[in-house]
Specification:
Blueprint: E1 7-13, H1 22-31, E2 35-42, H2 48-58, E3 63-68, H3 74-88, E4 93-96, H4 105-112, E5 121-125, E6 133-135, H5 138-155, E7 167-170, H6 171-177, H7 188-200, H8 202-207, E8 209-213, E9 216-218, H9 229-244, H10 250-259
Parallel strand pairs: 1-2, 1-4, 2-3, 5-8, 6-9
Antiparallel strand pairs: 4-7, 5-7
Length: about 260
Amino acid sequence: MLEIPQTFIVIPCYNEEKAISSIAYSRFLQNHPDASICFVNDGSTDNTLAILGLLKQQHPQRIQLLSLLKNVGKAEAVRQGIQYCTQNFNLHYIGYLDADLATTLEEFMLIKNNLDNEIVFCFGSRIRKIGSTINRENSRFLIGRVIATFISNILDLKVYDTQCGCKVFTKEIAKLLFQKEFISKWLFDVELFFRMIRHFGKETALKKMNEIPLKSWIEKGNSKVKPSYFFKLWLDLYTIKKEYKNTVPKYETFSRKIQSPSFE
């Protein structure tokens, strides 16, 4: 294991040459010596890889660059980035953000500060309230609220915003949650909650997660999610719910084995 700053931020990148702000990333690294960034180039066909290469040259010890030969989607790009970091570096915390920094790197670190011995998973929430700046097209906001409410009902959890692209974990829980591939390329966030419940049980999982209202979230550019995905989204949700429907917490399975004379 290499000695490295205690926090890693994974940034999936697919054709992000216009969205990547080298100045923002460099300024953050200069001001936060306790953090490193891992860019995952997800088979980009534009100039993204070259831009990321220049950033790495400027910060060779603070930036890791993982380049995938073909586009695999956000879920798998994030998963491979987190696996790469947790397997190769002596980090404490890890999470992911979108490349356009709709949520800033600085706010990611503030959310990370909510992790402790009890809380192992924190995530940002785009709640519009006094004192916050959440800039989002009204149409996307309304569609997002419909989807978020539906997802919350499926999870049977009072989560306001499962799809915010700012999530951070302790190293141990990240290794567990990102061990297996996800069902959906875009709704993998939903699976993270199901995997938490599967591992800990609902009651304990709730005590180990914290939803933090963002101070700022600025929508930038067009979403990589095609409008047509709105229709496939419901199929993905159905498939995810079916997969995790009969979820049995890991500790309950272990308990049942102990009580069974035949250990079957």
